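Action item from last meeting closed. Structure (74 res):
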């Protein structure tokens, strides 16, 4: 996994062409809302069980925290 840069400044400093986390998501909560929306769409399409949505969102939050922390040098 090649983490996204955390900020626009990080992106510009590294020359990474991908939008940073802060450019993509207003907040962690906004990111998790999108993750939940995507998981529920997969439930509607029959790819994911409804009882698994909470775990999917929890894991998305853990990944967000890990990657944000790793990019911040933690």
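Sequence:
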């Amino acid at each position: 996994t090649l983490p996204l840069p955390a900020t626009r400044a990080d992106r510009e400093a590294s020359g990474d062409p991908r939008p940073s986390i802060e450019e993509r998501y207003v907040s962690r909560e906004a990111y998790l809302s999108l993750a939940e929306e995507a998981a529920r769409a997969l439930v509607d399409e029959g790819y994911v069980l409804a009882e698994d949505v909470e775990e999917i969102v929890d894991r998305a939050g853990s990944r967000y925290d890990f990657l944000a922390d790793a990019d911040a040098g933690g």
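Note appended to the action item: Helices lie at 8-14, 21-24, 28-44, 53-71.
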